[in-house]
Design a protein that fits this description.
The protein has 279 residues and is an all-alpha fold. 64% of the residues lie in helices and 0% in strands. Helix 3 runs parallel beside helix 11. The longest helix is centred in the middle third of the chain and has 25 residues. The radius of gyration is 20 Å and the shape is globular. It starts with a helix and ends with a helix.
Amino acid sequence: MNYYCLIAGLPDIEIEDNKLLFGVSEFREDVRPHLWSDDLRLFDLYYTKFDNHNLLNYLIDKDYEFSNCGNISKDDLEECIKLYSEGDVPKNRHIPVYFKTFIDEYIDSKELHSDKSKWENRLTELYYRHAMLCGNNFISEWFEFNLNLNNVLSAFTSRKYQTETAVLGDNEVSDLLRTSSHRDFGLSGIVEDLDVFQRLADEKDLFEREKKIDLLKWHWLEERTFFKYFSIERIFAYLVKLEIIERWVGLDSLEGGKIFRELIDNLKGEVMNSQKDGY
């Protein structure tokens, strides 16, 4: 299905833009009514990450602040958890099939539920696996590219600081990252732009590294939608680009420094958790 009028009417955006006419939430409201059902399912995959956020936070603390950016309302999420915990199945089409797997694991687990990072990783793993089986080559490859990028960066960083590697997924790349002792984890010829990934892992300025990662993602989207002029792939790529710009737009040095400190704190937290677990 081609969306000539919709895509032709979208304003041009560039990664260096410092303002936006609308963000990802507004884009969703404007675009969804114009998409065919199969394409709508693919479009909604992007917003499922907000549903993941709501699910985990609700399981941990029912009084948390609910995000309205996802596909599932708070009432529907509560009903979903209730039905799955009772052995029943919700009828809401927006409920991803992996929610049952995650909810069952969370409820049955004897581990401390306060270890949020481990549950975040598990939910992310299920989300990526689900998205990579969406049936659309471009979107499937986008999610696998992000999975591989995150895993490679994590593996190289963990090796550098001698901490446990939090590798997600079960594809060829993740298997090699878990088992290979080679300097490049045996990924040469398997991972495109491996040398770029390695340079990103070596970037000491974490704030600068985040910007370079987003630039890499932007170029990936540009290259793979070059000939997809009026397709759902072009719309999905536009959505991801909006997110990238929205993330950085309006940041001044103070806010940039705040993000940098948050990145440092997250890295320290990963190291402390690994030490606490005996690694």
